[in-house]
Amino acid sequence: MTAPPPASAPPNAMVELTLARLRLFFREPGAVFWTFGFPLILSVALGIAFRNRPPEPVAVAVQSADLQSALARDPGIRAQLLDDAAARRALRTGKVDLVVLPGPPLTYLFDPARPESRLARALTDAALHPKGPPATADQPVTEHGSRYIDFLIPGLLA
Fold first, then answer.
1. 2-27 pLDDT, tens digit each
2. What distance in Å separates the CA atoms of residue 55 and residue 39, rounded to the nearest whole number?
3. Is residue 44 within 8 Å of residue 50, measured between CB atoms?
């Protein structure tokens, strides 16, 4: 007589259970999307939104062409030549971070509550007087309505 064919090994229960769970998972397209597709799409979108960019130059208003040409050499400063009224209005509305008034000593108009203004003051000092601390006068400007919250809440209520 002939020998019976060898019996195959019984299936491993853990392997079969894992295969069954994977088949159930891949039958649901929504589960596959939220597990694999959405994290990939979110990673790409956040990578585009928060890519490395150089810092924006600070905006400085000056009232003298000599000051403007001196500040134009620094790539971190964007100097604009404005008259007194336009410079103060631009500072109040946040279009510029610092106003430099000519004359000995140079006078800086800035809002001390805004970090950009303090940074603009430091960069302007370094650009105008690279050898040491300059003789300048600070004139902090705090006007009602110049903060972001001052127009955000009325806008939301309206």
1. 766 666 667 789 999 999 999 999 99
2. 29
3. no
